[in-house]
Every structure is written in structure tokens, then in C-alpha cells.
Design brief:
Number of strands of chain A: 13
CATH architecture of the largest domain in chain B: Orthogonal Bundle
Mean pLDDT of chain A: 87
Shape of chain B: elongated
Largest sheet of chain B: 5 strands, antiparallel
Distance between the termini of chain A: 57 Å
Radius of gyration of chain A: 24 Å
Structural class of chain A: alpha/beta
Oligomer: heterodimer
Number of strands of chain B: 9
Low-confidence stretches of chain B: none
Number of domains of chain A: 2
CATH superfamily of the largest domain in chain A: Periplasmic binding protein-like II
Number of helices of chain B: 14
Chain lengths: 447, 438
Amino acid sequence: MKRHPFALAAVLVVAALALAACGSSNKSSSGTTTSGGTSTTSGSTSVKGSINIVGVWTGAEQTHFQAVLKGFKKKFPNVKVSYRSTGDNTPTVLSTAVAGGNPPDLASVSQPGLVNDFQKKGALKTMDFARQTVLANYPPDIEKLGEIGGHLYGLIIKAANKSTVWYNVKAFNDAGVKPPTNWNDFLKAAKTLKASGIPAYSIGGADGWTLTDLFENIYLRQAGPQMYDKLSKHQIKWTDPSVKKALTTMGQVINDTSNIAGGTSGALQTDFPTSVQNVFAVKPKAAEVIEGDFVPGVLSKNPLKPVTGYNVYPFPAVGSSGPNVVEGGGDELMMFRDTPAIRALVKYLATGEAQTIWAKFGGYSAPAKTVPASAYPDEITRKTATAIGKAEVFRFDLSDLQPASFGGTVGQGEFKIFQDFLRSPSNVNGIAQSLESAAAKAYAAGK
Amino acid sequence: MEPPPAAAPPAPSSSFLRRHAVAIGFLLPATIMLGVWIVYPTIYTIWRSFFGRNGGFVGIDNYKAIFTTHILVKAIENTAIWILVAPALVTAIGLVFAVLTERIRWAVAFKTVVFMPMAISLFATGVIWHVMYIKDPSQGAVNAGIGAVRSWFEAPGVLQSANPSTPTLTGSPQSGFVLRKPLAAGGTAELGLTAIPPDEVPAAAKQAVTPRSKEGAITGVVWRDFSPGGGTPGKVENGELGLPGVTVDLFDSSGKQVQTTTAADDGTFTFADVKGSGLRAGVDSSTFAAPYGGVSWLGPKLITPAIIISYIWVWAGFAMVVIGAGLAAISREVLEAARTDGATEWQVFRRITVPMLAPVLSVVFITMLINVLKVFDVIISIAPGSTQSDAAVIAVQMWRQSFGGSNNFGLGSAIAVFLFVLVVPVLLLNVRRFRREV
């Protein structure tokens, strides 16, 4: 008689175990876990503890970030840091982790909108303790990007310069054009390139963000940083004359359909890596591609040599804008828990010393101006990376600052509407109208 | 574990729980699993669908959004197209293949080839078809095939395309270019073209020469009017090459073609014995053979049909095998009897084979219907970003709104509930069929 309850209990235990196994395997399957270094017993410093970080950096970037963590380990041997890469799934992983009440200690994301979201939900701890360190190392414009309501909640660890144009040197030489510095010369150079028998532009229109980046570069220069800030917070409408003016200016590029590799419909089916391949080829299909400092990184095999085969120039000035204007992006660090060990790591990551370690690997632009130019391994990275520290105006990618349903989702919002714009470049008013109604909807849905 | 006693000893006072301990013991794991993975998520999804992105209560706004948001309405339309087209086509094609394989040699080989795609994951299928559908014929296999067939019918041209270097020429590569200014005997025609890649200039080309006026004739030059930096358009400069082989026409004042010739290595040409005035010289359109640009399979108009084709490619094999099995079970005598009675093959197929196969056909059809409602991976992997929303179905938008960037779990849940409601009729149909069979 006494066996029954026992059997029942056994079944329950088995079921519970099975559930637990499912649960845990679910958790670890979303990313690879790696430890930041082995713990040693010796240590002169009293800071102890363990930190877990979740972030977007995978592959080589993960290795490089772990090298930075090793530098931290040398200074704070009693702190154990583990980094888990969640790649593109980071927003989803974090949203569920925060909703489930179990966030990591630190997280790096490439969408600043998420920092705002989590701050609003009260999930974040302020990083005000690190402000002195950050200001000592960062240009003020970049420090400010992490502020919400006067407090520091985000810290850009890895910056990206999206104000660059990459070109095929031979195509430019054949056509006899030089890298232009202002918009009129830019259009003139494109015309000359076309006459020489090669389309000027390669546009990765299948990825909507390449189009929003082009618009944002124009808008930041033409309308100025104050208007840019207003538009990024939806304090002015997308039907504002300044937006229409920038769209019209953008139309000067995308309306020149015979000057786009593959024409309009070809461009709409060209994803970003292919748009880079079009230019970075021995027999290029287009002369230049307008995108950020990460352009050469998308090629698994680059047939051209830097400087002699391909090169880069800063996005040309539009209207009366100065030369040192950078629209960029970056991976932002945010803090969910506050301990002395975490504080020590945040401060360390903000220093030029830590970022120099990463810069030496290449493929990285430091937000800290205290990273010496000599840290970058090649001339081209030096050019694009130091522009960030030198920037008089630095603004975050505008679409990344929008609610994700408007500024960050494939097939809808900004991405979709700018693709429609590429399809019919003369419809400036209609596009501005669609942008405004989509933005209004997304802002209203923030309940 | 020892087997529990087969029957509980007679104890009238023992509770329900005690009497059914074994049954409960066996049912509990499944109940827990169902509860945790099916019942709880279902209820929570319905609950969540009444809340917004950040968890505030929004009532039925999410459901309203499904029917008022353009891209979601588009997803509903696409789902309807899929339901109407894909299961029927898969069943029909499967039926045709199954009947065919009964009568051809190498049937096993044929069946293997048709069934093969089933062995590939749907996502991989999508990647393969995405590459095949690329517009550029040098990359996309489908357009390369069409381009190869087309090239048999089209004469090759000297150049692919060109633009006039100055507004003195009008027209397009398709219609040919012609000088605006009329000429008379003794006149010269300078036909400058640009936008010609250097490696496309014929190998025999020599430095272009400015034509000299000749009495009783019209002379001219057609050349690549471009030197690095742009040069001076409309002027033959040092380093600019003639375009040998280009066909040049002369039209009279009414637009009728009166003479035609081809340019020499230095780009010069001559129309001799010219009479009258008001003549126009121009470049003939046969000079240009634009390379085949390719069909825009992945564009907004063709994307859904294109994906459905790839889907049929995958599932036709499944339908063929199932229907083939049903076909093998049909009694040959009935078919023979019909043939003996003088029925044509079509009549046999239409009046005997199909009705007798009806139960199998409905299994395939309903299975496909359920599959089609779940279609997801082929759409994600075939459609490029610019047409993702043109290709999306409800299941895709359910995922995209929840996890694809916007992280709007409320709207995503509402779409999930809507999809569930759509599936219910099919489920009922299926349950009824099962009952009938049992």
C-alpha cells in the first residue's frame, strides 16, 4: 500500500527533472558561454566578485573583447568575468531576461533605444560613478549619447563611423575623379563616373538601413545637429520642410537610376554585402558604396589591396556643414546590477588603455579619444577611427534611436518606406507623409 | 521499479485518488507537459494579446491593428493566396506524377529525383531558391536560363549601351540616337557617345579623328567622347578612341532612312552622293544589344508566386509518394473493365482513378493545408529585405512583430490568436475525418 505514493513521487521527480533539463538546455542553446579567464588566488586588490556580461559581439569580435577582459583580469585578479555572446538575438534575450526578472550584470547592445526602454522600466542602474573617467577619455558628444535625464545609463564601448564612402581606386582613376569633399562635387564626380562607363553608386537597397543611413548623413549635415536631435525624438514631424529638403537631396542620388548598379530594381534586391562586392572587385560593377567603417569587414575575401585597390573618403559636406561631422553608431554598455566589481569593470572599459587593446586587433573604432592613432593596425582604419575622436559633431544613427517597430524592423517602418522611396524617388511628399504616420503610430504604441 | 499491484484491494473507504493512483501516475507526466508547454502558453498568449508593447492594457487595439496595418493586411492576403493555390497545386502535381510514374521506365529514378527535395531542410531550400532567383543573370540560375534562350534569338551588338555626350544627340539605345541639327551635303556629323566602359571598346579602335568636310557627301565620326576627368564633351580630344563597327544611318527630312554604313577603326564614316538638305545622321539601334537584365523574381509583384513555386518543388515529391501508394492499392480489375468497355485513358483517369483515390487525395490536401498555414522558413529565407513585407504571411508577421526587432509581444500574441482561429476549421475537418476513419 505504501508503494503508491512513492511511485507517484518518483514519477513527479522524473517529470521535474525532465522539465528542468528542457529549461536549462533552452537557456544555454541561445549562445556560447565562455569564461573571461581562470581565477587565481593571488591578488593585491580587495575587489572581489563575479560578473556576467551578455553582448552582441561574436566570432573575432568576441575574441578581441575577451582580450580586453584579460587586461582587466590583470588589474583585478579576484574578479571573475564571463562573457556570453547572444549576437543578433541580444534584444530578444535581454527583453525576456528582464521580463523574467533575471537580467545579466552588464549587457552590450547596438540599439540605444533598448537602453531607453530598460531605463523606463527601471531595470538599469546609473553609471554616474564613472562619469569622470568617461569625460576624461571621451569626446563630450559621445558621452552625452549615454545620458538619460542627466544621468549616465549607457556607455559606448565600440563606435562605428557611418559617415564614410568607399571607392574603387581604379574606377576613380579611369574616370579621372578625385574624392569629393562637398555635395556638388560629389554629384559631379558621379556624373563623370557614369560617362566613363561605370555606374557611380552601389546601393544595398535590400537592407533598408543602408538607405536610412544615407538619409541621416544628409539630414545631419543639411539641417544641423539641433534639428537632428529634434527629429530623433519626434519633436518635429517627418513632414517638416527640413526632412523634405533632405529627401529631395537624397533623390539627387537615387533618382539617377542609370547611375546605380543594377538600376532601381537591382538595387532593391542587392543586400549590403553584395553592394560592397560590387565595388570591391577587380571588375567592379560600381565605383563607390556609401556606408560605414565596417564595409571592408563584410568581405570574406577581398580581392583588392587597401589604399591602392580600395580607399575611403569622409561623407561630403552638404550645404554649409563643417567637415568633421560624423553620423555613427556604436555598441552601448548598460548596467543591471551595482557592485564594486562591476563598477571597476565599467570604469576600466571606458579608458583608452582598455580600448587600445581592442584597437590593435583592427576592425574596431574606439570612442575614447585617448586611444592613440598608432594603435590602429592600418592606414584606413586610422582614417575612419580617428575621425570619431576628432568629430565636432557626433550623432547616433537616427533610425536606431526610434522605437524599433519604426526604425529597426525589416519590412516595415523606416526600412520599408525608404525602400519605397528608392522605388519612386520623386514622391518626396508621399514618403514624408508615410514616414510621419508610421512614426506617429510607433510612438503612440509605446504603452 | 516493481510493477504495482494490478488491482487495488477492496477498500470501500479509499478515496478516488487512491483507487486511480496508477492511472494518475501514468497521466501526470503528459498532463504536466501539456500544461506547461501547451495550455499555459495558450492562455498566456490570449491574455498577453490585450496588452501593449510595454505591458499596458490596450483592450482590443492589437486586434484592430491586425486589420488596419497595411503590412498585416498584406500578410492576410498572402495567406489566402497560399491556402487557395499551394495545397491544390501540390495535390494536382503529385497526382500527375504518381500516375505518370506508373507508366514510364526509370520510374524509380524519377521518383527519387522528385522526392529528393524532401530531404533538404526548408530553410536550406529557401537559400538555394533565393540564389537561383537573383535578378542578375550572371548570378541567378533561373534568369541565366531565360537569358540563354533569349540570346539565340537576338543579334549581338557592338556595344551594350551608351549615352549621348552632349544634347546635340537625342534618343536612346533602344531607338537609336540622331543628331538634332539637320545637315546638307558637305556637312559633318560628330556623334559623341559616353557611358561606355573602357574594356567594351572594340579592340581595333584607334584614336578618333575630327571629320573633314567633303563636297557632295556627309562625313562624320562616332567615338567614345570621354577622357579622364570628363574632358570637353562634344570635342574629339587626344586619347579618345573611335568606335569601329558602329552602324550609322542617314535619314531624310521626312525621317526615312536613306543610307547606312559602319564606322571605321578611327570612328569615321562617309555618306557619299548626298542630295538635298534637312538630312539627319544618327547611330542605329542595332549597335546596342543591352544584356538581358533578368526577371525580377524577388521583386514585390512576383515574390509570392516565386516562393510558392519553390514550395511546390519541395512538397510535390511527398504528394507523389502518398498518392502513388494509394494508386497501387486500387484494384486493377476495375481499370481493366473500364478499358475493355471502351473508356479512353482520360475517362479512366477522370471517372475511375480520381474518385477511387479521393480519400488519399483529401489526406494530402489537408496535410498541405495545415503545412501551408505554418509556412515560414521559405519566406524568411527567399524574400530579400525589401520585399519581406510583400511576401510575409500571418505566421511570419507573428514572429516578426514579436521577435523581429519591434519586440511587440502584445501584437505578436494577437496575431498568434488570430492564426489559431484560422486553423480551427481545418482542425475540425481533420478531427471529423479521423473519427470517420475509426
